[in-house]
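Q: Joint fold for the lines below.
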Amino acid sequence: MKYDIIVSGVGGQGVLSIAAIIAASALRQGLRVKQSEEHGMAQRGGAVIAHLRLADEPVFSSLIPRGRADMVLSLEPLESLRYVPQLHPEGMLLTASEPTVNIPDYPDLGDVLNAVQSLPHSHLVDAHELARAAGSARAVNMVMVGAASTFVPVGAEAIEAHILERYASKSEKVLRSNLKAFRAGRDAIGRHATV
Amino acid sequence: MVGQLLLPARTSTDLVVLGDEAVALGAIHAGVSVAYGYPGTPATEIIEYLLRYAELVGGSHVSWSANEKTAFEQALGASMAGRRALVTMKHVGLNVAADPFMNSALVSIDGGLVLAVADDPGMHSSQNEQDSRFYADFARVVCLEPANQTEAYEMTREAFDISERFHIPVMVRLATRLAHSRSAVRTGEMRDPNQETVEPDPSKWVLLPTYARRQWRSLQQAQAAIKAYTEKSDHNTLYLSETSRELGVITTGIARNYYLDNKNDLDIEPSHLHIGAYPVPMEKIRALMGHVRSLLVLEEGYPFVERQVRGVGQTIVAVSGKETGAIRPDGELTPDVVRNALGLPSSSGMRAPALSLPMRPPRLCQGCPHADAYSAIRSVLDQYENHLVTSDIGCYTLGILPPYSVGQSCVCMGASIGMAKGAVDTGKENVIAVIGDSTFLHSGTTALMDCVNENTNMTVVILDNEVVAMTGTQPTVLPSSRLRDLVLGIGVAEEHCVVVEAHPKNLKEMASTLRQEVDHLGLSVVISVRECIEAARKRKKQ
Ligand code: SF4
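A: Joint structure:
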């Protein structure tokens, strides 16, 4: 088994933390993990991606070959579209629906969302709203981890166990809002998932 | 950003770490006493890991240095005192440290001296793609090139032993995709630092011609033993295929990963030589070439191995690689580049939507102090018909993009000041050099001395954001409050060394100060100060 994920977004949104949470949870379950990330110049508000490879067999490259990714998991809709050619024909695209408009030529948002919905397997997640409802506007990435958890070969229990550990040193409130955000993301997909 | 620090136990454990962190762990377990470096992507996380380790556990001295040259020299001094020393930098940093590096090959290293250098093929965050293996070859020392995190750990450990065995510095060469990827490492047992402090033998450390000639000769004589070592090294593995004599593949470092992920799709079983230790193992290459009809060389960086295996005359074996165009000569290797070089098609993947997607280049953060400085500079430049602005390396290089469009050059650390002076010397007017505080401390001060010396008619704008921002807000070697004293100490006239606060409410004042100093016929320095907001955010979080 091999499951390849491209995580995308805009610098500062928490692309690395999404990759790190899924990776740590996968390890808990005994999977092998390879993760490639970007540091430095790329992190200054530009397009950022991380490659995350989960497997129970040896994988060598930390980069996912073109047309082989199982999932694009994005914090921003325009950024999700950039990596469609990386997906295999049956691949899944999950993206937060709220745009980050920090460029002058950002396309019409309706066109962007339509393009996402025109793909064979895609979900738009209102992650910002769900995060706010969970009690922390900053938990957008946790909502997206929850959304992805419906599809990735990592159990929700393993992810929740990791979240408990990750926020153990933080306040009860932070921990609870993150768990809530994770479950809200998971439910958002569960409601209309075709799996 | 670096993941949570996972404390290495004294006994073997599995840890998931960045390639950079694996190097740091390897050094800790090898018994390193000191570590130095200058922040630079993709090498930064080596020292960051060691700093946090030293803070939590103690034991070793770890610090950021003013630049790569001073870092290297400090490591060299520790080695002279008999202790193990690690020095880290990005590839272009080795240009700055080239002087001590080249000469450190001629002294007789006592405590193991390891240089971990991270190359950036693909230029993710760099101004060139230079291949550090040439430096190791140039200095005639050993270079180890890991393919994964476990090798990064093991090779760093081993590098200290080789350094002590051959009395030479040893290079560990990383590439971005290893430095910045995470995977599991099985660590070994930790060993203690070496306790001996030796009395250095001047005849082995003073490179006066009489001594240097002897040291150079002995380095030449050591080459046979060094080559014998890499020839036998487990890092150089040869597999001769029994089923096919058609194709041989040479991989180095992380190119092996891309090869192994694609190999099973081939119809034939190629012979394979992997090189992880240099100088290249000539006997193994000969054995491979005697076994196959064609040879493909897969290596990250320049065609370093490819050139060595290709003879001048026509050989029976057809060698292909970057020099023949089988692989593009620029950019980094990817699974697909390697796949295509092996004659396999890439998967077509999902069809991209028809919508055309605009690029989203990096930009200055919202509220960045540099933005205010650039707004002021822009408004002043608009008042002159002729002007020239040289820029430098850091977040502020992004000011070259609209809406500021400030800066016409960015070449290497500190170049802004020297280049501005050169332009003024040819008669250019209204010349401004823009340089960050850390870049100024790294290598701007010496160029400023040249300007003071001739009272060059130019204005240096030091963008003081109080940290090394681009690489993750490391502290600068000198606090912001001391910058003006330093500039005055170099000899800039007090009335033309002005400090302004970079703030949106100050734009008018900043612009009029700048205008005054640009109009001043002589050297001026304007220090524009405000803390990087990213650094301020992190500070408040702690
Ligand atoms: S990290 Fe700091 S210096 Fe760099 S762009 Fe952001 S605010 Fe400016």
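Q: Anything notable?
A: Chain B touches chain A through 52 residues (CB under 8 Å). The radius of gyration of chain B is 25 Å.
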